[in-house]
Every structure is written in C-alpha cells, then in structure tokens.
Write a structure and sequence with these properties.
The protein is α+β, with helices and mostly antiparallel strands. The protein has 3 domains: about 20-235 and about 410-465, 2-Layer Sandwich (BirA Bifunctional Protein, domain 2); about 250-390, YbaK/aminoacyl-tRNA synthetase-associated domain (YbaK protein), CATH 3.90.960; about 480-575, Rossmann fold, CATH 3.40.50.800. The chain has 15 helices and 31 strands. Strands 3, 7, 8, 9, 10, 11, 12, 21 and 24 form a 9-stranded mixed beta sheet that branches. A 5-stranded mixed beta sheet has the order 16-14-15-17-20. It is globular, with a radius of gyration of 30 Å. Residues about 200-205 have low confidence and may be disordered. Bound molecules: adenosine-5'-triphosphate and magnesium ion. Adenosine-5'-triphosphate (ATP) binds near residues 140, 150, 155, 419 and 421.
C-alpha cells in the first residue's frame, strides 16, 4: 500500500446519495470526471475485471461467441431502424470532419443484425449467439448514484439469431439460466420480474433486479411467487354491472373543490344521503402524446379512481413507444374546454379527446367527477350510460396490499436495481434489415432475435449496495480486489520481517495479498482496511512475538488468533482456493 495508487477519503463526496457511490469514491475505487462519467482506479478496476470475467465465463458456457464492435458508429444503420430519432436526447451524436453524422452506441442491435446478415446466408448457419462487453453511451437525463447510472458504462450485450420461435425460446432460456448462474456467483440477492404486461406472450421479457432500498425500480411480489415491475402489473377488471335502475347523474355546485380531498369533504357535508370516499370519485388527468421523435402532440385524457395516484412510468410503458408529457399552461390556454380541477368525460368526448380509463372503471360503475365548469361536479355519472371511454390503460399507481394478479394474496412492494434484461425481440430488427436465411426448400426464412443485456459496471455498484456496513465495503470473495488484506501493525523490524515473509508465503500459495506497509498508525490502517472491504484482514503485530497473528472476518467481524505456522493453510482454506 505504500506504493499503491490509492488515496482514501474521510468524507463522503458532496454529490453522493447512495452508499455504493459514497463508499466506492471514499475507498478510492472510482473518481468522477464529469456527471455520469467515471475513471476506474486500481482497486476498482480489479473488481470490474472480476465481474467481467464471471459474466464472460457464463456467456461462453452457453456457447455465445464474443466479438467487439466500435463504440463510434455511423448514423445510417440507426436511421434504417428509426432509432436515430426514436432515441431522442439520450443519444450522444457527433459529426466527423466531413460533416457526416455519427453516434456513440447506446446499444448495438443494428450492428449485430447487419454483421450476421453480411456473414451468414443459409439455414445451416443458424442458430448463433453473439455477445460483446462494450462501453455504452447514453446521455441519461438523471445520471445519479455514481456508476449505478452512468452516461458512459460497461454493458454485456448479446443477441441470439434463430430460424424458429422455438429456437428463440431456447436461446432465451439459455441466457436466462446463464444470468442466474452469474448473479449467483456474484453473491447477489435478486428477483426476476416480468418486464412487460405479457401482451407479447408471457415471458417475452424479464428483468433481473438486485434487491436494494436505493434502487430506482419498484417491483411488487405476491405470496405465490409472482414478481413484476410496477409497469408490468396488470389490473384485474371486475365484471361489468347492470346499468338499469341506477340513479340519474346530477350536477352539483361544489364551490372550491379542485382537489379530491376538498371534494370529498364537501360531498360529505352536503347532505346527499350517503358517505363518499376518494374511491367514489373519478380523477381525470390530461396528458399529451406524440409519435416517437416528434410530430404533432395529441391530447389524451386518463381517468383513474380518485383514491389512486397516476403513475407516469406505467403510462409511459402502456403507450410505448409514443412520447407522453403533462400539459403546460400554454396547452391549457389552447384548450379552454379543459376546466382545471373540474375536468369531466363530457368535455373530452365533445372535443374529440381520446379518453382512457383504469380497468376498474367498468360499465355500471357510478362516479363523482368534474362537470366541466368551475366549482361543479357530477354525482352518479355511470360508465357505459353517461360516458363511454375509448379504452382502458394501466395508469393508476400500484399499491402494496392490492390483490396480486396470480390470485395468491396481496402484493408487497420493494425496490431494486436493474442488473440484467432478457428480451425476446422477435423480428423487429431482422425485418428492418431483411435478415433472412435460405431455407432447405430454397425459400427465405426470416430470422427471429433475442437481446440480452447485463450492466457490468452497474453490477460493481449493485454488489456494493448490497454488501457494506457503516465502516465500508465488504466484497464477496468472487469479486474482491484481493483475497487478504495484511495489516502491518507495529514499527519493529521483527514485525516488518514477519509480515513480509507471511505475505510471500500467501502469495506463493496463490492468494492475492494487499500489504499495508505504510508508515501510518494502526488506527488509520484498520479504518482503511474496513473501508476497502477485502473479506479477510490479517493483523501482524505484537502477537508475533508469541507466534500468533490475528485473522479478522470483514463480514462477521469475528477475530481469531492463529498460530503463524498454521496461518497460510488457514487463509487458503478461508479464501476457498
Ligand atoms: P434502466 O431502466 O436502468 O435505464 P435500461 O432498460 O435502459 O435500464 P437496457 O437497455 O436493457 O437498460 O440495458 C441493459 C443493462 O444495462 C441494464 O439491465 C442495466 O443493468 C445496464 N444499464 C442500462 N443503463 C445504464 C446506465 N446508464 N448505467 C449503467 N448501467 C446501465
Ligand atoms: Mg435506460
């Protein structure tokens, strides 16, 4: 350590919010260069390389073949698939000296497809799985949490090319199994969640989420083992009810009731002969949508039961790939029929605004909702009688306690970090590129593809997020930068010599040893050892005179004295070498 390129910090970096970010910076693993752009220092690079090796081994084990594309890419292939525009602001674009457009690859579907098309032509060539471990660039809106969400980051992306749907299912299954093995080896606690609502057929897309309170992804799970991204949870629609005999809709003067809360309070004080809750009200939220990458915005009304928040992420997922935004003041000014706080289905229908509702809003349900004029609401507005939505949308926030779609009980909410994604792409990219194989009968067969990503650099942070304490990092052995952190605690020559010879023996036994030979106090050395997080710490100090060293387990905190002549065998054993 006296020569290691490392400076640890006592203070958390000012911009760091999550533990992995704080600790990786404090322990000298990474350094920030720009928002979302980080350098890897010696310790960090060792961990990154260890993660990368495990990812690579598991990809090779399923027969995927590694290649390497450039990160600097021409515009044309992305133009052909529409993603040059679809990617929007997330794409880093640049021009060469001749004025030609280039981009820094955010993901490489186009390149893989074009490559396979160039090399392969016969059905005998297939199936094939290719992958790379490559630096990706995305101009993320909110680069945060250090390397968890970078603008430059390392990703393993692979692609499968098959002749048949069954072939694709098999390639998908292999990748899924490889991911299970790699994340198990990395010592992570994770869940596999359905990422799409299943409209494309069940397991067409799944995400691997490392469970962490600081994760950006919320997921829900059921007692029966169902787990899904909140975006993918489908709301069960109750059966339609009889409309006949329901009370007629009535408009009421409800002064100063622009919010659900004020409305409910007013209604309950208005002597209407019953009690109302927020769940009896229908909240209408106005949005605008447009085709990806531009074009005209169109208004969209979304109705949800008033006791639920609208979840923009669910709406975005439901409308993908269209863009969605909230209305601004100018939009409201252009549509004077929208009376803020009192918007009802009537004005939307009268003005040709598409109106989608929560699946719980079925025919025969009665609602209190806006009457489209200030300070007025309608009571007993019945779906299917007084208004007819254009369709349903899963827009309402999912709540813990909601019934699980698998019928096994109530949903529980948790948070996670997306570490991997497996996705049956189908023929989107092969269609765009006309990627065909010549079949046995001489007819072309359109190739079907899968795409599979792992956030290699993000994994380093995800592991740190799951494995640390107040004093610092605690690496799982599989990715630790060293096997043993040897602290030289004492100034005598005997201690220095003893430490050096022990380090030599450990090294000869195949262990990677970090020796703290600095001229610093034992207190400083112990603190740094805890911060750096090598799983086994050996202290060579005063005990040496009695022929013992101290072995400390970084994770459990357990310390034992071990006879010097038994130390090597013991440490080799602990390190599992
Ligand atoms: P997210 O929802 O977190 O933005 P994504 O859906 O955009 O992820 P993919 O395009 O599927 O991610 O990329 C594959 C993997 O790359 C992800 O599962 C994730 O682990 C990793 N990844 C994506 N974006 C980033 C980023 N900005 N920084 C680090 N890793 C990332
Ligand atoms: Mg993303």
């Amino acid at each position: 350590m006296s020569s290691l390129f490392l400076r640890t910090l006592r203070e958390d970096p000012a911009d760091a919010e999550v533990p992995s970010h704080k600790l990786l910076v404090r322990a000298g693993y990474v350094r920030r260069v720009a928002p979302g752009v980080y350098s890897w220092l010696p310790l960090g690079l060792r961990v990154l390389r260890a993660v990368e090796r495990i990812v690579r081994e598991e990809m090779d084990a399923i027969g995927a073949q590694e290649i390497h594309f450039p990160a600097l890419l021409p515009r044309e292939p992305y133009e052909a698939t529409g993603r040059w525009t679809e990617y929007g602001d997330n794409l880093f674009r640049l021009k060469d000296r001749r004025g030609n457009d280039y981009l820094l690859g955010p993901t490489h579907e186009e390149l893989f497809t074009a490559l396979v098309k160039g090399e392969y032509s016969s059905y005998k060539d297939y199936p094939v799985m290719l992958y790379q471990i490559q630096t990706k660039y995305r101009d993320e809106a909110r680069p945060r949490a250090g390397i968890l969400r970078g603008r430059e980051f390392l990703m393993k992306d692979s692609y499968s090319f098959d002749l048949t749907d069954e072939g694709l299912a098999e390639s998908y299954r292999k990748h899924r199994a490889a991911y299970v093995r790699m994340f198990d080896r990395l010592g992570l606690t994770y869940v596999i969640v359905a990422a799409t609502s299943g409209a494309m057929g069940g397991s067409a897309s799944e995400e691997f989420l490392a469970v962490a309170e600081t994760g950006e992804d919320t997921f829900v799970r059921s007692p029966g083992g169902y787990a899904a991204n909140v975006e993918a949870v489908t709301t069960h629609a109750p059966p339609a009810r009889e409309v006949e005999g329901l009370p007629a809709a009535q408009a009421h003067h409800t002064p100063n009731t622009p919010t659900i809360e004020s409305l409910v309070t007013f209604l309950n004080g208005a002597d209407l002969g019953r009690t109302f809750t927020a769940a009896d009200t229908l909240k209408n939220v106005l949005l605008k949508t447009r085709r990806p990458g531009g074009g005209e915005w169109a208004l969209l009304g979304v109705g949800v039961p008033g006791d639920r928040e609208v979840d923009m992420k669910r709406i975005e997922a439901a409308l993908e790939p269209a863009e969605v935004a909230l209305l601004d003041a100018a939009d409201f000014a252009r549509a004077p029929f929208l009376v803020k706080g009192y918007i009802g289905p009537a004005a939307l229908a009268a003005n040709g605004v598409r109106y989608l509702v929560d699946p719980r809003i079925v025919t025969g349900t009665a609602w209190v909702t806006g009457a489209d004029k200030p300070d007025h609401h309608v009571v007993d507005l019945v779906c299917g009688r007084d208004f007819t939505p254009d369709g349903t949308i899963d827009a309402a926030a999912v709540r813990a306690g909601d019934p699980a779609p698998d019928g096994s009980g109530a949903l529980e909410a948790a948070r996670g970090i997306e570490i991997g994604h497996v996705f049956q792409l189908g023929r989107k990219y092969s269609d765009a590129a006309s990627l065909d194989a010549l079949g046995p009968d001489g007819k072309p067969v359109r190739i079907t593809m899968g795409s599979y990503g792992v956030g290699v650099s993000r994994l380093v942070a995800a592991i740190a997020e799951q494995s640390h304490d107040d004093s610092g990092l605690i690496w799982p052995r599989a990715v630790s930068p060293f096997d043993v952190h040897l602290v030289v605690a004492g100034k005598t020559e005997a201690i220095a010599a003893g430490a050096e010879s022990l380090a030599g023996e450990l090294d000869a036994a195949g262990l990677r040893v970090l020796v703290d030979d600095r001229k610093a106090s034992p207190g400083v050395k112990f603190a740094d050892a805890e911060l750096i997080g090598v799983p086994t710490i050996v202290v060579v100090g005063r005990g040496l005179a009695n022929g013992v060293v101290e072995v400390k387990d970084r994770c459990s905190g357990e310390r034992v004295e071990v006879a010097l002549d038994a130390a090597v065998a013991r440490l080799v054993d602990v390190a599992g070498r």
